[in-house]
Specification:
single chain, alpha/beta, globular, 6-stranded mixed β-sheet, about 250 residues
Length: about 250
């Protein structure tokens, strides 16, 4: 069974390497393209105001990468400003970028998402604290709402846009093979938006014979609504996803 990794290209490549190292047949089929925002002035302003923030929340590795790609040459990450990450991928990206203080969900959290991050933040006093959320255009506001309820002063900056992919000829061939031989392929979804884009790319597809691994209940629900015959949920860690796939193949 060939595993189709649907994350954006950079993360898909990393996952493919890890899955192949575990002996799985995996291919990247990114179903979301990441485009840096054209509003460079907003990013420059966010960097200039960074020392006034108590915390900066990065919603994804792409948020971290695109925000730091826009960093003015003379500026550095200010001492004392906390970074918040919803999971290991974002934490790894932030550490590679030199961010020293990062809060993230517990390693054994059932999910790596805003809710799990809030478990680590909810015990702090946020009254009057300034928090910047770095995200894609139109991102989810659940964590921001919780912080605002506790008195935090929120601001937002969109570092990138998520757009539907333009498949290369090789990627289109891979998609065609998956549609023609659904039982020989396993979709790996880590985003509901990727599933929406897949539906648009193959509007006439019959999904009842297809199978998927999804890393969150909301994503699994979206996959089932598309009509996939088998959708299995897995924790969004590499080891958990590998174990899930191996159990399906055995």
């Amino acid at each position: 069974m060939r595993v189709l990794v649907t994350r954006p290209a950079a993360q898909a490549s990393e996952w493919v390497q890890r899955l192949r190292a575990a002996g799985l047949q995996a291919e990247a089929l990114p179903l979301i393209d990441i485009v840096p925002t054209a509003d460079t002035a907003a990013l420059a302003a966010a960097w200039a105001a960074l020392p006034a923030q108590a915390m900066v929340v990065f919603v994804s590795p792409n948020a971290a990468a695109c925000f730091f790609a826009a960093k003015p040459e003379a500026l550095r990450w200010p001492a004392g400003v906390l970074a918040a990450s919803p999971g290991p991928g974002t934490t790894q990206a932030l550490r590679a970028l030199g961010v020293p203080a990062i809060v993230e969900p517990a390693a054994d959290a059932p999910q790596f998402d805003s809710e799990a991050l809030w478990q680590q933040l909810s015990g702090r006093d946020w009254a009057g604290q300034r928090v910047l959320v770095v995200r894609g255009a139109g991102g989810r506001d659940w964590l921001a709402e919780r912080l605002r309820e506790r008195g935090a002063v929120l601001s937002f900056v969109a570092a990138y846009d998520r757009v539907a992919p333009q498949l290369s000829p090789a990627q289109q061939t891979l998609l065609d093979a998956a549609l023609q031989q659904p039982r020989q392929h396993l979709w790996f979804f880590s985003s509901s938006e990727a599933i929406t884009h897949l539906a648009a790319l193959a509007p006439q597809a019959e999904w009842s014979q297809a199978s998927a691994v999804a890393t969150h209940p909301r994503i699994a629900e979206t996959a089932r609504s598309l009509g996939l015959g088998r959708v299995i949920e897995a924790r969004p860690s590499v080891d958990a996803v590998i174990a899930c796939i191996q159990s399906i193949e055995s």
